[in-house]
Specification:
Chains A, B: Pathway: Amino-acid degradation; L-phenylalanine degradation; acetoacetate and fumarate from L-phenylalanine: step 6/6. Two copies of one chain form a homodimer. Helices cover 15% and strands 28% of the residues of chain A. Chain A is an alpha+beta fold. In chain A, strands 6, 7, 8, 13, 14, 16, 17 and 22 form an eight-stranded mixed β-sheet that branches. Chain A has a five-stranded antiparallel β-sheet with strand order 4-3-2-1-5. In chain A, a hairpin with a 2-residue loop joins strand 2 and strand 3. The N and C termini of chain A lie far apart (56 Å).
């Protein structure tokens, strides 16, 4: 039997307990929970086959009451001795995509990010569109290209046309960027015709992941009118391996910034679901930004209510992400296009001036949140390395 | 034993043989093929369990060679006597969504439609965006709200702001519209990092459905900048119950209209995949439009090549639709916003002037295609009735 040591100050103590899908050396993927530097095999410990699946979906589908119950069982179990074969060192296992993605929606909920991108993409217009403060602007992304942290990111090729070029050309992306985002995983879906009320958020949403919405800015700038981003985004969206349950984030809840004008009634929260998450963006191991999630204008509860207010159904495994998290300060911006102001103000990375991503670069986004009694919780990390473009066919 | 009578002139003769998912009275959903006015239970006739699934996905995943082989087996089998219990009257079965939708992408491939919508949505700008003739513009839609023909369409509610209103209001859509489209179902997917060449289309795509991309124009007009349509579309997208195999459409192949400027090399087709489909739009039983698919600027092979050229993977069950099919003539427009020029030129329907959809209205889109030897093939029909908005919560 094994007792998992939990050092004081661990970001993965008993107040956190994020879920993931792992395979032990030579074993099949299954659901685990992270405790300090260990992964606990939940099927082995709790004896429930729902954790033998290679995704969290079957468990998430069981609903909120069950999530509460299982969390209590886990806290009991991991506070005691566990069978040796149920405990693995986190460094010794392979981590997978933790859930099967149903639909993927990406919002645009940071006022700072939306204003910065407005200035960069549409320099002759108002930075924020007239609708922006009335609704959380969002769009659907490609669910099939959501990939687990660690997946290599092949530089995409595509059509791009610089403003000074007469015609578009085809080739590898020249402005490869990141977007540091927070993603929300729907645990229990809602049927067609039944909008999710803004106060049902915690009942429906299972947990939180970190997201890197890799972006080919040159492709995006050329393609995105009038139907929105498509190939500039759909080549890869990375998510962190650990889903932090919403149940662990009570101490992280904060009000959103003042919303003025007051949103329409279906977007008014009784109990705010802003979140006090501190993100950190590392470029080749060097911290280049610390985006504060608490600055996000729209809350995830408002995003879910908006996404379904037209009667659209939601499903277990739906992922909706916040859009780039950017704060008011320059070193709080969650995308390189903002950090380098469209490439005009290079950052010093590894002693060299840098703008967009080069082949071989690695980007890691991590985050922490306040937990109960002054503890900090970790949100795992989402990382990816840029690989050279495939040879043109 | 039963021999299925196939009247000469049937749109569902042996040259067609579309696949669907049906349940006989009291039975489980399974794969069938339509022959004249009958549905043949494929698991019962061919003895292969892949047809016992409640979707075509497992069969589609087997790949092109197998599709060819099964089609030959079906032609042999249905030309002969069949066991009584394997044959059902099409009117006596329930038809379901024929495939599980992985990702859903909607293109915008009609020059006439894109120009008309440009004039209506952005009257002060050029109707076509600068990118339009260089790439098939498209975006991701909501896979989870693709519904089978016959599903009632509850009028969506949402935010909308008329140009003369100071602020948006919330309420039922006032400009509910259709889009008559043709959809293409990916049979065999492609891995991340491996673009599908434009000439691989017929190898990868299993078949064709009709699509009604219901559209809340007032919601769409307010929300769609800068990230594209979202809730104005995501409440429902209806598809026809029969997937016509690409193998049945050889005689329908035509070149696309002249593409000028010449597209970039990855979009150049050696063997054109324009399709000579004649669509018919009926509003409460009255034909209001006959959109010609042969007028579409971009071919579906170009759409698939574009959709994956950035390295995005594709999956069995991916659905990509053409966007509204509109021809150059007024009575060839595939959306009411075009047919009534933004509501300013009502149509006479059932003796009354009509612009957008009212509760209780029914829209049916059907199509035919040339088959071998002068035969016509039917594409089934996609139909839906508008139901009143849900009471506001």
């Amino acid at each position: 039997m094994t007792r998992i040591p939990v050092p004081s100050g661990s970001l993965y103590g008993l107040a956190n307990l994020p879920y993931g899908v792992f395979s032990p050396d030579g074993g099949e993927p299954r659901v685990g929970v992270r405790v300090a530097d260990s992964v606990v095999d939940l099927a082995a410990v709790l004896g429930d086959d729902v954790f033998s699946w290679p995704s969290l979906n079957a468990f998430m589908e069981q609903g909120h009451e069950r999530w509460v119950e299982v969390r209590e069982h886990i806290i009991d179990a991991v506070s005691d001795d566990l069978p040796d074969e149920a405990v693995h060192a986190v460094d010794a296992v392979t981590l997978h995509l933790p859930f099967e993605v149903a639909d993927y929606v990406d919002f645009y909920a940071s006022e700072h990010h939306a204003s910065n991108l407005g200035r960069l993409f549409r320099p002759d217009s108002e930075p924020l569109m007239p609708n922006w403060k009335h609704l959380p602007v969002g769009y659907h992304g490609r669910a099939g290209t959501v990939v687990p942290s660690g997946t290599g990111i092949v530089r995409p090729s595509g059509q791009r046309k610089a403003p000074d070029e007469a015609a578009p050309s085809f080739g590898p992306c020249r402005r490869l960027d990141i977007e540091a985002e927070v993603g929300f995983v729907v645990g229990t879906g809602s049927p067609l015709g039944a909008p999710v009320a803004v106060d049902e958020f915690a009942e429906r949403v299972f947990g939180v992941v970190l997201v890197n919405d890799w972006s080919a800015r040159d492709v995006q700038a050329w393609e995105y009118v009038p139907l929105g981003p498509f190939l500039g985004k759909s080549f890869a969206t990375s998510v962190s391996p650990w889903v932090v349950p919403l149940l662990a984030l009570e101490a992280a809840r904060v009000p959103t910034p003042l919303q003025d004008p007051e949103p329409l009634p279906y977007l008014r929260e009784k109990n705010p679901w802003g979140l006090d998450l501190d993100l950190v963006v590392e470029w080749n191991g060097q911290v280049v930004s610390r985006p504060p999630y608490r600055e996000m204008y729209w809350s995830p509860a408002q995003m879910l209510a908006h996404m379904t207010v037209n009667g659209a159904s939601s499903r277990t495994g739906d992922l909706f992400a916040s859009g780039t998290v950017s704060g008011p300060e320059k070193d709080q911006r969650g995308a390189f296009i903002e950090l380098t102001w469209g490439g005009k103000e290079p950052l010093e990375v590894g002693g060299e001036p840098r703008t967009f991503l080069e082949d071989g670069d690695t980007v890691t986004i991590s985050a922490t949140a306040p937990g109960p009694g002054g503890a900090r919780l970790g949100l795992g990390a989402v990382t990816g390395r840029v690989l050279p473009a495939a040879p043109l066919g």
